[in-house]
Structure formats: structure tokens, C-alpha cells
Amino acid sequence: MKSIKGRMIVKFDLHQKDKVTFGTLKLYVPNRADVNENMREGYPTLSTVVDGGETELKEGDVIVSEHTLLENTGQWIENIDGIVTMSIPIKSDVVIYGKIDEKGDVIPLFDNLVCERIQEGFSSSIIITPDIYKKVENNKAIVLRVSKNSDIKEGEKIVYYRYSDYELVYFIDGIERKAIMVKRSDIVGIEK
User: Fold this and answer.
1) Is position 2 within any domain?
2) Which of 21, 85, 147, 183 fits as disulfide partner to 174, beta carbons 3.0 to 4.6 Å?
3) pTM, full prediction
4) Where are the beta strands (DSSP E) in 66-164?
């Protein structure tokens, strides 16, 4: 199948998050999206490129997107036993965050950055504070990976619009993985 201008074609497993691994325990949780209050953990986010159109993506690349992108049934071409083929637009408001490398990590695309939120712990010479009491800065992060031709460098501390980061949740071989993504356009400064 060949995509038309401004679109690409992907294929994904509608039930990709139904099998969950916790250590050595493997669980089957059908309709996980219906019982999960965090939609990112329940809805599919990984798809395989069938035709990348005008992008650098090639057939067989696995991409990770916002959880709402793949649930748009109006763009589905076919659904055969839960394997859905669909057409998605290639434009800035459609959020494809990156592609998955051979280790299962996200390689950011389209001016996105993979980041780690900065945590500030309360310190005392007497009391050791548990992690649950650490304050997470909701607009500061350390850049772990950058997309091609980015003017931001790995290891830099960035400040971005409050709450504009996005936590990706995706499954590789039944194991839940997470990554924090920030769009380049949401960065307001670099800390020195």
C-alpha cells in the first residue's frame, strides 16, 4: 500500500497492552484501556510503518505516538483480528514522538526531546527523606536524547512551559516502558 502526499500508513496491534509482565509473572488484561484511569497506560501507542510517505521513516520502523492518535477509527483502513492498518497525517499537530531502537529506547523525531524530570529532595542532616517526598519540578528537565539537527544538546538542563511535557507509556515484549517527551517549541530556556 502506498500513501498519498502529506500522509503515512502504519499498522498496529489493537491489543498490544493486554499482556503485561511483572517480573516473572505474565498477566492477560483484556480491555485494559476500559479499566485504566491513565489512558496512556491502556491505549496503543506503538505502530509499525507500512509506508513513511515524505518522512525519513522506512517500512518496518516502529514508532511511538500520543495515545489518542491510533484510536481515531475514522482513519482506519482495515481491522483484521485486532491488527489495524491506518492512514495518519504528517503535520505538526499530529504527535509522533519518535521511533524505537533495537534496545527499546525512543529515538526522538520531529523536533522532540527525550528528557528526565529534575527532582529536588528535601535535605536535612538528621532525616533521610524517602523518594515519595521529593519534589518534581514540573517545568525543568535534563535532556537525554535529541532529534536530528537540534540546537539543544544532550545533558543540558532545560526549562519549558509548565505541564507541557508528555509521559509516553509503551510496551516492548510485554514490559512497560516510559519516556518523558518535550517538544522543542515548548522550551523557554536553558539553565546554566
Assistant:
1) no
2) 21
3) 0.81
4) 76-80, 83-89, 96-100, 106-108, 112-120, 135-146, 157-160
For residue 178, what are the domain limits? 7-191
- Cα atoms in the 13 Å half-sphere on the side-chain side of 85: 9
DSSP 153-172: -TT-EEEESTT--EEEEEEE
- State the Cα–Cα distance between residues 15 and 82, nearest whole angstrom: 7
Q: Decide if 50 is inside a domain.
A: yes
In this structure, are strands 25-28 and 83-89 parallel, antiparallel, or unpaired? Answer: unpaired
| pLDDT tens, position by position, 19-59 | 777 777 777 777 666 666 677 777 889 999 999 988 889 99
- Kindly report the number of other CB atoms within 10 A of residue 74's CB atom: 6
Q: Which of 121, 98, 119, 118 is nearest to 158 (CA)?
A: 118
Q: How many domains does the chain have?
A: 1
184 backbone dihedrals φ, ψ, rounded to 5°? -55, -35
